[in-house]
Amino acid sequence: MDRSIPPGLVNGLALQLRNTSRSEEDRNRDLATALEQLLQAYPTDMEKEKTMLVLALLLAKKVASHTPSLLRDVFHTTVNFINQNLRTYVRSLARNPGQDGETPFLLKIQKKISWVRWRMPVIPATQEAEAGESLEPWRQRLQ
Hints:
By secondary structure, this protein is mainly α. It has helices spanning 7-18, 24-39, 48-66, 71-85, 87-95, 105-118, 125-131. Helices cover 64% and strands 0% of the residues. The termini are far apart.
């Protein structure tokens, strides 16, 4: 699946995500449009939600590899897209353990995404370094 994602699609999505004036809703629409284009090339014997989830993650990986400076934006957009469009599907996967009784891999991914999403730094470290001190009042000066 990874190899069948056209470079032009990756480049186009990267250009759209690079535009900082676009809203989160616009970015989600851009990702959905790209995924719909990719879905047309895949057989219908696979569940649509499963295919969309895999393709969303692969497309995020491709865009981040293509333009590393977009890693945070593409990650944020992909997580929002999954939460808005595939939440029910991901939860159903989490509720139904695999044949061996283990927690599905996707549940672990969902937990990590939630953990990372809420722990992203609000103030970049470079601003703190430029100021010569922590911009958070409860922390001591940087040395």
